[in-house]
Amino acid sequence: MKKIQMVDLKSQYDNIKTQINSAVLNVFESTAYINGPEVKEFQKELEDYLNVKHVIPCANGTDALQIAMMGLGLQPGDEVITADFTFAATVEVIALLQLTPVLVDVHPDTFNIDIEAVKRAITPKTKAIVPVHLFGQCADMEPLLQLAKEHHLYVIEDNAQAIGADYIFSDGTKKKAGTIGIVGTTSFFPSKNLGCYGDGGAIFTDDDNLAHKLRGIVNHGMYQRYYHDVIGVNSRLDSVQAAILRVKLPFLDAYCDARRKAAEFYNRAFANHPNMITPTISDFSTHVFHQYTLRINNADRNVVHQHLLENQIPNAIYYPVPLHAQKAYADVRYQEEDFKVTNELVETVISLPMHTEFEEEQLKFITQTILDFFNK
Asked: Which domains are assigned to the chain?
């Protein structure tokens, strides 16, 4: 059996090696390394895929979030509500801009932001809500948009983990994750469903004026060279990464389907097991399984984690410490009783290998090793 990887990027590369190598060599031949034709073409192709008016490529997903907030003109002291159970980049950029992070609990089934918790957190200082589409499916955007409309708030989607997912509105219409709020952001980190071979990110919006401002911000605030109209940063997707993403974008839906197929295998193996709770798929979102995350029930998650490692099965705990308990983001405003779900999740979740290149023998070994652990 081939060695099991948490994310098998090597096998994925081997399957598209000819196209990737050719695309990269073409960039080397052109020497157009920054804002070259590959970046502009990728931008157009991703706009078509997402059915969004504007894609603004940038250097990484964290920059994308920061630039989105800069573009909206948020000011120091403005409150931004986001989920407690996520990667730190989401709250990091809020703090970097001297905005005030307001962390709230998540839904126990989907792990995404709890709408009722958001309602309780809104104050006169609240200016934006950042739902995180965690592990591959959308937060419940329709009621969130309605809430934002009532309170005149921006909705900024952190779509670093769910590119390719569809949100399904109550009337049956669909929109791609990241294109639903005023602005959405994503990461092209190599392990993402659409990943490059380094760092990369992008911002999405249908707002023409916002898009114009964002394009200036990513390029030192310039629209014309050496004329700085807005305060900006240096955050550009390089042409090599854009060329790689152009090769991979047509495979994105197939990659998501492959992940779903692997998730279905896991779900069948673990169905109704007393010690495992399989991922919930909501009726308002498709799931692209950036991660396949179990909850361990009536057992020690850390012992399961170690058992898998001892059997050469990589696995991960996303996330071991909630953001409200991190030293960098601790705040006297936070009360533990307000984070009951998050506090339980950090003790019980475990993510299994998830990628596009599984062999059935690998999936059988992973699932049987877990089942044997509980049945011993």
From this structure: 9-250 (3.40.640.10), 252-375 (3.90.1150.10)
